[in-house]
Amino acid sequence: MGGDGREIADGSGDAPHREDRGGWEIADGSGDAPHREDRGGREIAAALARLERITRQLRRECPWDREQDERTVVPHTLEEAYELADAANRGDDAKLAEELGDVLFQVHFLSLLMEERGAADLARVAGRATDKLIRRHPHVFAETEVEDAAEVLRNWDAIKTTESGREPGVFGEVPDNLPATLYARKVQRRAASSGFDVDDVEQPLRSVADELAELRAARTRQERFDELGDVLFAAVGVARKLQVDPELALRAAADRFRGRVQSAVDLAASEGRSWNDLASEGQLAYYARARSHEDEGEGEPQER
């Protein structure tokens, strides 16, 4: 979808197969013909058209890009998504913009791979996403009324169950390869959408306490394995009720711990002590000092 009016090759080395259809025409998502947007819309369309041209050129001319397929590209897509999440969690707008660009390129590249085998193209991908958003937001695009965000989510889940082509059952289309905390949250959300849920966070909090007691009572390796999993699963339930992303919360906690340990290591080094040579008690003492400095605003963990 080039913006210069040229035909663009499909990346297979064959003759060009499609023409530019207007680098700054944008479909409005209603199924009508594309319409011309204001200057801001034209700038966005021009930038996207340029990215599309570059993506196609890389597919034709870069030896690495020519060798890729969906299975080899998706791991990079996941990596970029995690880098995007990290930038968002840090509140780093410059990094967030950069990572959004990387994810956007992944979308263009994967769409191009589908186009090459006649399965879909970027227009179809964008069109299906737009149609889905309209269908799942009847409170915006139709006459449905909602009271709050929670009702929006309930309607969203209910609408998904009516869509054709979806796997049946309460847990249909729950990906098995999600990170464990997100998998647990999605399983809980699907159960909740069927009506199997509690009203507030108090029951999940009691579940954490109950599971911790069972973990303390566990004796065998298998019992400890099972009970620890139950503790983590219950903690995800608390996160869901508090509307906190458990993956980001756990990562943030790990980052805080990492920063505090590094501060303790640096503090020991400033006093001529080697961290690895310290006994456990000495390390804990430096860690406590680093924590106290952090609480006083004197030793914030370094950004990593």
Would you summarize the structure shown here?
With 304 residues, the protein is mostly helical.
How are the SSEs placed, and which strands pair?
Layout: E1 7-8, E2 18-19, E3 25-26, E4 35-36, H1 39-61, H2 63-66, H3 70-90, H4 93-116, H5 122-135, H6 138-141, H7 149-162, H8 180-193, H9 202-217, H10 221-242, H11 246-270, H12 280-295
Helix pairs in contact: 1-4, 3-4, 8-10, 9-10, 11-12
Q: Main attributes?
A:
3 domains, Helix Hairpins, single chain, globular, 3% strand
How would you sum up this structure, described in words?
- The protein is mainly α and 304 residues long.
- It folds into three domains: 122 residues, MazG-like (Helix Hairpins); 67 residues, Helix Hairpins (Orthogonal Bundle), CATH 1.10.287; 49 residues.
- Helices cover 65% and strands 3% of the residues.
- It has twelve helices and four strands.
- It has a two-stranded antiparallel sheet. Strands 3-4 form a two-stranded antiparallel ribbon.
- A hairpin with an 8-residue loop joins strand 3 and strand 4.
- Helix 3 packs antiparallel against helix 4 and helix 11 packs across helix 12.
- The chain is globular.
- The two termini are 39 Å apart.
- The N terminus and C terminus are likely disordered.
